[in-house]
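Running this now, will post back.
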Amino acid sequence: ILKNHFANHAFENFEIAAYESLISMAQATGHSQHLTALRTTLQEEERTAQTLRGMTHELTLKYMRLYEQGQ
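Update: finished.
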């Protein structure tokens, strides 16, 4: 449970960094027509990362309960 959660969270942060880089590239090369879509997608990735981050505490406790029960 936890390992997959951590991997999902790490991947979201990878995507955030990638979109931030793409935005920088679009700005630097004058491709401003792509900025709205890139920024929208960046915001979606940031919301997903925040949601995952918010789940960490409860998932950890659930894992501990299951582990104690031998599951």
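The CA atoms of residues 15 and 45 lie 7 Å apart. More later if anyone needs it.
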